[in-house]
Give the backbone structure.
Amino acid sequence: MSAQSRPVRAARPGLGGVRLGDRLADRDNNFDVLRLFAAWAVLVSHCFALVGRAEPLHQLNATLGNVGVLIFFAVSGLLIRRSWEYDPSPRDFWTKRALRLLPALAAVSVLTAFVLGPVVTSRPLSSYFSSWETWIYPVRVTLLYTFGAPLPGVFDANPYPGVNGPLWSLPVEVFAYLCLFLMGITGLLARRWFVTTVAGASLVWAAWWVPNTSDSIASTYVLSAFAVGAAAYTWRDRLVLSWPVALALFPICIAAGLGPTSVRVVVWTLAAVYLSYWFAYAVPPLGRPLVRWGDASYGVYIWAFPIQQALVQWGVRDPWLMLVIATPVVWLLAIASWRLVERPALRRKPHPTAATAGDRPADPALGAGRTHG
């Protein structure tokens, strides 16, 4: 084997930090654990919101759920950008994204409409099943038309109505995929100055967008984390993930949370990007038992809300009790989703030809790419 063909051993995590570019090809990372934590953070946040209680981090003018989604977009920006570099095929790009998002989404929408819905609806079953909303729900959700998707009589009387609120982020992330794809096929993604300019402009937009729009619409500012993540890949040869910087960011984020909203948005977006990659690549492996049964993060994200809403309808109004009940139930459903739906779908992902792939390392984004990656 020639010197050029020998695999380069990636730098291992240490207190001195690691260079992002040295670790991108290493699949021995903490991304699965990080995504699971982000999905669970959204679950924890909704345990409070769905019963009308103040959410964790409300003192900092934010929510734990927002932090979870911010992490998802930060991770996705890096790994989807890396996936395009590995296989810049338009067909393969969209096939991978579809297989990661849609099969599990179709499963949760069908089971919600035809298993959970009949159990919790306030309407007679004859009325429920004769409504067009019941039959169109799985179709519109699977097609990512998730904003305000209702089911007749389902959770209408809950303090916070809605069937599956977190699904709003999926079409937003697909929009981010589309932007990256267009930059890729036009060659702009290879221009460092352009990608950096887009990331900077997205931060300016987010700083203006959040204070000047409603809470529901303002949440789309997480697109900025995706843009900054894609830019981080562009600067991977210079971005060092170090413990001193990471630890310093925590008090900086607290201080920013106590200041103007625009400052918090910018600081937290940048911190989410840096801290996500630091945790994934610079922190020694931890929490591996949590993911030994599979990547449950996407399943947790798409299953938690309807289960929590059902608990609210059945009288669970204490957020801590809901957390204790919902966490294992949702995790089991997520593991079932991974083993029965997601993993079989991912096995059908296309692989680049030898001419396309060359000597590139294994694609680290094969298991990622939704906000959930």
Notes: The longest strand covers residues 18-19. The first helix runs from residue 20 to 23.
